[in-house]
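for ur thesis appendix - Sugar phosphate transporter domain-containing protein. copy paste whatever u need, i formatted it the way the template wanted (i think)
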Amino acid sequence: MAFAAIGTRVLARYTTLLKGLHNVEMTTDRWLRNILPIGALFSGSLVFSNMAYLTLSVSFIQMLKAFTPVAVLLISFAFGLKKLSTTLTAIVVMISVGVCMASYGESEFNMSGFTYQVLAIAFESTRLVMVQVLLQGLKMDPLVSLYYFSPVCAALNMLILPFAEGFAPFRALAQLGPVILLSNAGVAFGLNIASVFLIGAASSLTLTLAGVLKDILLILGSMFLLGSSVTGLQFIGYAIALGGLVLFKTHKG
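the 3d part is after this line
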């Protein structure tokens, strides 16, 4: 997040990729009401998501993430942004059943890791809904949003780190090396830039459907490169959830 905060400011200074900043009038009150709570939710999502990776396989985490649209939809119902319909209810049930089957079929199930990932999904889903509720009139694209949210998220993570993990992560940086750290941060930042170009060249729907392919590749990569085991029941469950996910992202209404 610190890398993203610096990167977006460099892009704002030397490129036109963040020209949308001129359309946003950021006041102290708006920052406190909108940016700070959403940045805090962003931080919680990252923290719990990373904790889940310590005990769960990459493949299982990606299967659980298929439930994120359902969580977003349920929170949207609570905020009054969506109206319940028979079609949406059927899609929610379809994805839920698929994720439940994938979870039941997990051979190395870990309750703490599962809890962390569920909390990460809850934080991320709430953040996405709050972005829609609080920032509807600001017309922020992904990079402009990252410009405002990343410093808040980075600052909160730095405040939490000494109490959660102590100073061990800082000592581990010497073993990790700057090349791996910076390349990882650079890839994550490049993903945000690529998403802006993809939305501009195609549509947001294309971006979300490309995310489905990304999840499939991550699961296959986890199996063949990391040796993660995926059971037959998980394949069936994830296929059902995936079908529901595609229906959800192409559903109008």
